[in-house]
Amino acid sequence: MGWKRINLRDEQTNNSKPGRRWELSPILEIDAFNLNVAILNPDERLSENHYHYHENQKELIHVVEGKCQVEVEDDQLVITTDDVIMFETGSKGTHLVHNPFSDPAKVIAIGWPPEGRYPVEKVAKKSEILGKSNE
Question: Quick one: fold of 15-124?
């Protein structure tokens, strides 16, 4: 067979990560990149590493539904349904994707190359850059 179909409702989520996250690369036997789908409820962040970067991996986030806030070195932006944002490797790509809004957000996250996921450099906790004490 030259194709593979899955439904997220039939797959397990990774409970050790923030949000409700499906890590699809292993399921779909994808070796070229890391593919994740995540649902972020209000006040959840996408990464367990808070405000971070990968020395050897680029990341792309596509908002499927809802909206998220993105913290980068010199800006703060809101990304909404159908927006796509890409983060470069190294410290110039430092970012935090989180949901400070009242409705859940569904995102697709792609990182490449897959072996560049680690090491990840945590720059600051979410609470440190947002001035909140809940994390």
Answer: Jelly Rolls (2.60.120)
